[in-house]
From TrEMBL:
It comes from Streptomyces paradoxus. This is Serine phosphatase RsbU (Regulator of sigma subunit)/PAS domain-containing protein/anti-sigma regulatory factor (Ser/Thr protein kinase). It comes from the Bacteria. One of its GO terms (cellular component) is plasma membrane. Gene3D superfamilies: 3.30.450.40, Histidine kinase-like ATPase, C-terminal domain, PAS domain, PPM-type phosphatase domain. SMART domains: GAF, PP2C_SIG. One of its GO terms (biological process) is phosphorelay signal transduction system. Residues 209-249 form the PAS domain. The keyword Transmembrane helix applies. It is found in: Cell membrane. The chain crosses the membrane at residues 12-34, 169-190.
Length: 870
């Protein structure tokens, strides 16, 4: 065994060599790791000592003292001894040493790199010093103003840090010796067992074993052929000679020269893998199996076995047909219904059946099915899909509207709900009655047989499928009719699923469209353009809105509910309605977002209790209010992408708007950002579907959006067009909502404002000033009603509010009157009785004004009223 002449000896030697190599590799790896750890420890210790000494109290003052060496040398030596480093050197910014373990080195220039430390950064380096290889760190010393006033360097030789390898190497060698001994013993045991298993066979015994194998090879009742990679027959047993009729000298000749039938000869020469491949050789039907031998060191070639299957000849044709039909049904199960599109599913059916089953296949569906509705037996059908071996067949083209007569095979299938076989179309008068001219063309074209099968989904008949035969002279038979029925039954399930999805998708789209704004309200503060693109599949929860507020202000809102389908659309509608209601209260953006966050939390809580509903897995919102008088825009967002701002000069930026958490998390406050927008600026609000998808990160999308906005024209419509053209390379997987609003400002001539003294007599002065201003604006018709409205509002402010009090009038699309006071008490409209002396002021205001209300400010409130301009 130890001599290596047997397999057992070779295994023993191989195991010992492998273990020895592993031991050597382990020792080398340990030494390299210890060296790496030594260098890293030296870097860390020198850097820590240098930074500690540089930042120690008094270091800066010592550097700025008249004699830094006298102060710092004792400290440096004490620190060096405690920290176990080889040197601590303090120097000025020119590299002149103030301290050194060897006093004769003080005052000389430091050897090393100083540039990074002079730039304010700490660094380490490895050098070859006079005391051997060492690692030194240089750290800047900064004064309170951040200026570098000196440098501190600490260093240590690697030999003082190391030593681990010397201590661990004997232990590793001892362990390696033990492992080698154990591996040798184990290999010996395995080799002895292998030796026992082979029984120590020699060449003579192996030769006799081969002779036994050869006898068995020629005795079996199955032909065996071995062919090398060049197609030369190496071996053929007696049964192979008998089955193939091989000549006596067949071994050593090429298989193509043995007089075999072409199919069998080509198979043996090719060396390809074959399993039970049937070949007719003379009057015998042979099942051939062939495998390659080019594995595990065996010479390249192939081995083939031959089995006489003559008794299966009568059944082979039908078995092959049955196998093909099973394969077709399997392919129908996996290949039809890959999408939820009715038309595409019908096309998949026709593509599968041509030419494997029929030469032409047509699918006709009721119009209602294409739209997701219930089919109507009295309605017309639409040719949804056509496929064939040629394009010039005189069949109805795709998209043709058809109404089949009752005598036609299609009409009978729709009426009875069962398949119809017309083996000879030329002899079928009922089919020809559908269209005499086209029927004659079809027969003349060569189409001679037809199977029609209704597309049934439960009790519903969705349409009819027609299979037409042209190339094969045999007509369709009963077995093929059953196959067609099974094929259509599988396709009907997929088409019905697509129909149901289309119906639900249409319902969701209808719901979503009904919840989105159809027309933007009239307002004069912003010029607005918008786009809304639904997702490629499903309906999402993106929404947007433009809400006119009091004081000529306008609110912009965009939001997104994560997910698709009816649930997302319904949740979006609830949130949009809530925003409408909250905005009517004239709440600041952060308060409105907080109320919306609380609402989403309640929705989640309610739907968690209902097992049939799913909670809102995520919702975001951005709410912005623009004031055309002050040109200020207040923005708050909850987990939503930031807005983009295009300045009048064309520069684009993303304002820093605090990003609050998504809606529904609760517990965290929302912050706002106040932006002052120049007239003509464009504010761009969008949902994440515009800048983010599965193939790109949101940062990439934001940068692409910035570039697109920089190329856009001045108008909001042009901005929308450029953004969508540049951002969308294909239909998005998520909804996209986009709003571009160009700011306008009220001119100073459209705003009038007066302070009101805390004196009831000042009401008359206010009325006079208002009358003069209305005359300047050409609104004399509104003088009476405006004086009455402001008289009541100012009187209420004087009586129940607090100073200072101001009156402001805005001439926009409406005439807006506002009274400011410092009180937070809101007046309420009530109906005064006949005996009440007061309480009719707000009632008069409500009757004269088109709208009125209260808006709260951080320091008071505003009572406002709007009147339409004449």
């Amino acid at each position: 065994m130890l001599g290596g002449r047997s397999v057992a000896g070779q295994v023993f030697l191989l195991v010992v060599v492998i273990v020895l190599l592993l031991v050597v590799a382990a020792v080398v790896a340990l030494v390299l790791q210890v060296r790496h750890d030594t260098t890293r420890e030296a870097r860390n210790r020198s850097l820590a000592v240098a930074e500690t000494f540089a930042n120690a109290p008094g270091t800066v003052e010592a550097l700025q003292s008249p004699d830094p060496t006298a102060v710092l040398q004792p400290r440096a030596e004490a620190a060096r001894e405690r920290s176990k480093v080889d040197f601590i050197v303090v120097m000025n910014t020119d590299g002149i040493r103030y301290t050194h373990p060897r006093p004769d080195r003080i005052g000389k220039k430091f050897v090393g790199t100083l540039a990074p430390a002079l730039a304010g950064k700490s660094f380490t380096e490895e050098i070859e010093g006079t005391i051997g290889p060492l690692v030194q760190a240089v750290v800047p010393v900064k004064d309170p103003d951040g200026r570098v006033v000196g440098l501190v360097s600490a260093g240590i030789t690697t030999k003082n840090v190391g030593g681990t390898a010397d201590r661990q190497l004997p232990l590793v060698l001892a362990a390696a010796a033990v492992a080698l001994a154990l591996a040798t013993a184990g290999a010996a045991l395995v080799s002895r067992r292998l030796l026992r298993q082979t029984h120590g066979l020699g060449p003579h015994e192996m030769t006799r074993m081969y002779e036994h194998h050869d006898a068995v090879l020629h005795a079996v009742r199955e032909g065996v052929l071995i062919v090398d990679d060049g197609g030369i027959l190496v071996l053929a047993n007696d049964e192979a000679h008998r089955l193939l009729g091989l000549p006596a000298d067949a071994e050593g000749r090429h298989v193509l020269s043995l007089g075999l039938d072409p199919g069998t000869a080509d198979l043996l020469a090719s060396g390809r893998v074959a399993t039970d491949e049937v070949h007719l050789v003379g009057d015998r039907l042979l099942a051939v199996n062939q495998r390659t031998t080019d594995r595990a060191g065996v010479p390249p070639g192939s081995v083939a076995t031959l089995r006489d299957s003559t008794e299966l000849r009568a059944l082979s044709g039908r078995a092959e047909t049955a196998r093909e039909r099973l394969n077709m049904l399997y392919d129908a199960g996996v290949g039809i219904g890959t999408s939820l599109d009715v038309t595409r599913t019908a096309e998949e059916l026709t593509e599968l059946a041509v030419p494997r089953f029929a030469d032409f296949v047509t699918v006709d569906l009721f119009d209602a099915v294409l739209g997701g509705g219930q089919p109507n037996a009295a309605a017309t059908l639409s040719r949804t899909a056509v496929s064939g071996i040629r394009k010039d067949a005189p069949l109805y083209p795709a998209g043709e509207r058809i109404r089949f007569v009752e005598s036609s095979p299609q009409g009978r299938s729709l009426a009875t709900g069962g398949p119809v076989l017309e083996p000879r179309l030329g002899e079928a008068p009922g089919w020809q009655a559908q269209d005499l001219e086209r029927s004659a063309q079809i027969v003349a074209y060569g189409i001679h047989s037809l199977i029609t099968v209704p597309l049934r989904a439960g009790a519903l008949v969705l349409g009819v499928v027609s299979f037409w035969r042209c190339e094969k002279p045999e007509p369709f038979d009963a077995d093929e009719l059953a196959l067609a029925e099974e094929l259509v039954a599988r396709a009907a399930v997929s088409i019905d699923n697509a129909r149901r999805y289309t119906r639900e998708h249409s319902m969701a789209v209808t719901l979503q469209r009904s919840l989105l704004p159809r027309n933007l309200p009239e307002q004069g503060a912003l010029e607005i353009a918008y786009r809304y693109l639904p997702a490629q599949a499903g309906v999402g929860g993106d929404w947007f809105d433009v809400l006119p507020l009091s004081g000529a202000r306008v609110a912009l809102v965009v939001g997104d509910v994560v997910g698709h389908g009816l649930h997302a659309a319904a949740t979006m509608g609830r949130l949009r309605t809530a925003v409408h209601n909250f905005s009517a209260l004239d709440l600041p953006p952060e308060e409105l977002i907080a109320l919306l966050d609380e609402l989403v939390g309640r929705i989640d809580q309610d739907e968690t209790e209902d097992e049939g509903s799913a909670p809102v897995t995520g919702a975001t919102c951005l709410y912005a209010v623009y004031d055309p008088v002050s040109r200020r825009c207040t923005v708050a967002r909850a987990g939503h992408p930031p807005p983009a701002l295009i300045h009048p000069d064309g520069t684009v930026e993303y304002p820093d708007v605090p990003a609050g958490p998504p809606l529904g998390l609760g517990g965290l406050p929302f912050e706002t950002a106040e932006l002052e927008l120049a007239e003509g600026s464009r504010l761009v609000l969008y949902t994440d579907g515009l800048v983010e998808d599965r193939e790109r990160d949101i940062d990439v999308g934001l940068e692409m959006l910035r570039e697109a906005l920089g190329r856009a024209g001045q108008s909001p419509e042009d901005t929308c067009r450029v953004v969508l053209d540049s951002q969308l390379t294909a239909r998005s997987s998520d909804d996209i909502a986009l709003i571009v609003a160009r700011t306008r400002a009220l001119a100073s001539g459209q705003v009038a404002e007066w302070p009101v003294p805390a004196d009831p007599a000042a009401v008359g002065e206010v009325r006079a000033a208002v009358s003069r201003q209305l005359s300047e604006w050409g609104l004399d018709e509104l003088t009476f009603s405006t004086e009455l409205i402001l008289s009541e509002l100012v009187t209420n402010a004087l009586r129940y509010g607090g100073g200072p009090i101001r009156v402001r009038m805005l001439r926009d699309r409406n005439l807006i009157c506002e009274v400011f006071d410092s009180s937070s008490t809101s007046p309420h409209l009530r109906y005064a009785t006949m005996t009440d002396e007061g309480g009719r002021g707000l009632f008069l205001v409500a009757q004269l004004a088109e709208r009125w209300g209260t808006r709260y400010l951080p320091a008071g409130k505003v009572i406002w009223a709007e009147q339409p301009l004449p």
